[in-house]
Design a protein that fits this description.
Length: 388
């Protein structure tokens, strides 16, 4: 199995990383091919983390007797002794987490040529936390490689950007994502194409839409709820409905993961299924529950943002219909509804609604209460759209 298999539409980035890993295997340390600090950027769903793990496996598999495939399996499972990963489901990465990772980066590799440190969602570090990482990037041990992942270079402080080599990922083509869903997940071609299109080439979301009929139904219900807004009163009710849909979507994502984590934690603590947890071990489960609550908060915010991204795609379709511009529509499953809205409203009104959605996303990112931000956004839908 190729390390880079399934990384759709990223041939240029793969070529850069593959060349760097190959040069490191040959003992080359030229800056043009291999460096000790990398930043992988790309839009949501482009596969930043996946390509980071593939690169890590390529580096860790350059020495020793292990096969490339076995190293990759260890890397994906995060069990390789020379790999350290920092990922979070919370809103921000804490300074203590980064300090712990920086301390472990000083260890020498045990079985491979490198020690690889991966930080997913490096954009979730505040400036004070970023400065802790900066010191490690300025003077890394000779056999330590840092791989950071973020949506864009602008999401990191300038001093970190100046010390990393950037590799930019592109948005995969819809057809490529659909083909990946068919090949990897066995999804029917029509469902795969619809999921890839509605997810706007976000690989993770496309997988969820393709394999979960309830997720597809919740998405369509959110769009039709907004299309049916006629008055300000409708807008307030719709805001509550969207919030409930976001909560249901977030719960569907987190509940199964929470149960698996708790079962794994109990097993590692030696507690039989259904058994009583000894008082001395309860603090560890309490810490796990706190982490899961923080993840649920982040998951809810992500769910609300997904709905607003879907709404932007909806009004983009309406705008294209109104001005007769070329381009394939995203929401073909409700094309009759969006065409009806396009016919009874104007392009300036649609643009005003899209501005309102973008403003709501910024407000929620700034910690405005989601219910208030959604109400303000949907009131603008009622007023600007004249019933859209």
């Amino acid at each position: 199995m190729s390390l880079w298999e399934g990384l759709t539409g990223q041939a240029e980035a793969i070529a850069v990383l593959e060349a760097a890993a190959s040069s490191s295997a040959l003992g080359s340390t030229g800056e043009s091919s291999m460096t000790h600090s990398w930043l992988i950027t790309g839009p949501p769903g482009s596969g930043r983390s996946n390509i980071a793990y593939a690169f890590a496996a390529a580096l860790l598999g350059t020495r020793g007797d292990e096969t490339e495939e076995s190293v990759y399996k260890q890397v994906v499972a995060r069990t390789h002794p020379d790999l350290s990963v920092l990922s979070t489901e919370r809103v921000i990465i804490s300074i203590d987490e980064v300090r712990k990772l920086v301390a472990s980066s000083q260890f020498s590799p045990s079985v491979g040529h490198y020690r690889v440190m991966i930080i997913e969602d490096a954009d979730r570090m505040v400036e004070r936390t970023s400065n802790v990482l900066l010191k490690a990037l300025e003077e890394p041990p000779p056999r330590t490689v840092w791989i950071l992942c973020a949506p864009s270079e602008a999401d990191l402080i300038p001093t970190i950007r100046s010390r990393v080599r950037s590799v930019r990922l592109r948005t995969p083509a819809i057809e490529d994502v659909a083909q990946l869903l068919q090949d990897r997940d066995g999804v029917a071609p029509d469902i795969a194409l619809r999921a890839a299109r509605e997810a706007q080439s976000h690989i993770g979301m496309a997988h969820r839409l393709a394999t979960n009929a309830e997720a597809r139904e919740r998405r369509e219900r959110a769009l039709t709820t907004v299309l049916n807004i006629r008055t300000v009163s409708d807008a307030v009710i719709a805001a509550t409905s969207l919030l409930e849909l976001s909560k249901a979507d977030a719960a569907a994502i987190t509940e199964e993961k929470d149960a698996q984590e708790r079962e794994s934690a109990l097993r590692s603590l030696g507690v039989a299924p259904g058994g009583t947890v000894p008082p001395a071990l309860r603090v560890q489960l309490k810490n796990l529950e706190e982490d899961q609550k923080r993840r649920a908060t982040r998951s809810l915010r992500d769910g609300i943002d997904r709905i607003m991204v879907d709404l932007l795609s909806l009004y983009r379709d309406i705008l294209l219909t109104q001005i007769g511009a070329p381009g394939e529509l995203i929401n073909l499953s409700i094309v009759d509804n969006l065409t009806a809205v396009a016919n009874r409203t104007t392009a300036p009104a649609t643009l005003a609604i899209m501005d309102g959605i973008a403003e709501a996303r910024r407000r929620i990112e700034s910690n405005v209460a989601p219910a208030l931000a959604l109400e303000a956004m949907l009131v603008k839908v009622a007023v600007s759209g004249r019933g859209a």
